[in-house]
Amino acid sequence: MPEGSWDVVVIGAGPGGYVAAIRAAQLGLKTLVVEKDPFLGGTCLHRGCIPTKALLHTADLLQKAREGESFGVRCQNVELDLGAAHAHKRKVVSKNAKGIEGLFKKNRVQWVQGTGKILGPGRVEVQKGDGSRETLESRFVLLATGSRCGDLPHVKADGERIINSDHALELAEVPARLLVLGAGAVGMEFASIFSRFGSKVTVIELLDRVLPLEDPDVSKEVERAFRKQGIACHTATRVEAVETGEFGVRLWAKNAAGEEVQFEGDKLLLAVGRQAVIDGVGLENTQAKVEKGRVQVDAYYRADAPWLYAIGDLIPTPWLAHVASMEGVLAVEHMAGKNPPTINYNQVPSCTYCYPEVGSIGLTEPQAREKGYEVRVGRFPFSASGKAAILGESLGFVKIVADARYDEILGVHIVGPHATELIAEAEAALRGELTAEELAWTIHAHPTLHEAIHEAAEGVHGMTIHI
């Protein structure tokens, strides 16, 4: 155990905690990280973002290989090797975890494996795997303990028939029939993976559309694409009971019309959200306030005490790895006496890596209208894009929501090829408060997918050329 007093003790080494720790050290703060796992990177690296996207990449390659003949590439006997896919996933995860360890050494960030608990102002107890305990003293404590997979009161994961995303990442066999409960990003990504792996997938969602946080036009397009791929989507459907047995999993539900419906599968994936890891971290020994399972913080992530900060999935902000990272940077900049800009949560990009991909930022069209804006919309389909035709990726569109009065871009919503990469241009546009006209006068290279953004910007003023 490292000895001495510290400037910052960070509890949790996920994308919020480890990024914050590195920035703290760069700012000259003596920094220690406490992490319960024997590796760095947290849920995102080991049980979330990275391994999921590795399997999605395998699914993308499998799909391309099956379609290869239409591009002049004959691929015979194309099949999935799930064991090799898992091996690739583990290789990527291991490389990134070792990379974080290297960054810690480079920046002189120390870390210890154990469970951290706050005892009082600036005091953290670390319990190690062997049961031993030691107390650390620190000027500041940053809570970055993240979240875990959530259950429903009447449906809980057992790791066999009813699984969560952690279990899904380690399945040794592809289930013939997979039920997915929840049509948010996690549910839709796993549906996209296993459908292309060979499962017959059924998605069940309580709300009235898939990807309910996205613009309604995006939800409609993704659901249409899923149905074309043979993925059944049942929205506005409430699951009331679940039974497991040798037959697999059986669900009883009611649809929007109040009719009883039944679903059967070999496995049920619960994708119903996550729960903040706040039990056992010692919040009862602080002045921190918790409402609806979230720690309440100010604009600099102080939890009602000058020495205590909290970020990421612990607080009521978007539960996204890149958000946690930025919050961590801002928090330690504030600890170091800097004056960092606060985060504009209307400018947080959201990405869903299903097929087709979704990338969005800013206000949806309904949100903009609800806020009182007079809205103009520009839209351009990838079916009219030369580069999309080359790729054989004609699904989707770019939609730009702009303020009619000042022409400021309020939101950009992309569904289609490489949407999660294309959204970067929109991030810069919103950050720079660009107008649709300024974006339209920006020359975009040809042939590229991002020409669709240019055309959508022209469409805000009814001047789209290629449709």
**What is the number of beta strands?**
24
CATH superfamily of the largest domain: FAD/NAD(P)-binding domain
Gap between N and C termini: 65 Å
Structural class: alpha/beta
| Main sheet properties | 7 strands, mixed
Q: What Rg, in angstroms, do the CA atoms define?
A: 24 Å
Uncertain runs are none
Write down the CATH class of the largest domain: Alpha Beta
CATH topology of the largest domain: FAD/NAD(P)-binding domain
- Chain-averaged pLDDT: 96
Bulk shape: globular
Measured as a percent range, the helix fraction is 25-40%
If classified by CATH, what would the architecture of the largest domain be? Answer: 3-Layer(bba) Sandwich
Count the domains.
3
Helix run count: 13
In terms of DSSP E residues, the strand content is 25-35%
Any overview of this molecule?
With 467 residues, the protein is an alpha/beta fold. It folds into three domains: 5-149 and 275-335, FAD/NAD(P)-binding domain, CATH 3.50.50.60; 162-272, 3-Layer(bba) Sandwich (FAD/NAD(P)-binding domain), CATH 3.50.50.60; 356-459, FAD/NAD-linked reductase, C-terminal dimerisation domain (Enolase-like, domain 1). The chain is 31% helix and 26% strand. It is built from 13 helices and 24 strands. It has helices spanning 17-26, 42-47, 49-66, 82-107, 165-168, 185-197, 216-228, 321-335, 365-370, 386-391, 419-431, 436-440, 451-459; strands at 5-11, 31-35, 110-113, 115-120, 123-127, 133-143, 147-149, 162-163, 177-181, 200-204, 232-234, 238-245, 248-254, 260-265, 267-270, 274-276, 290-291, 294-295, 308-310, 350-352, 357-362, 375-381, 397-403, 409-416. It is globular.
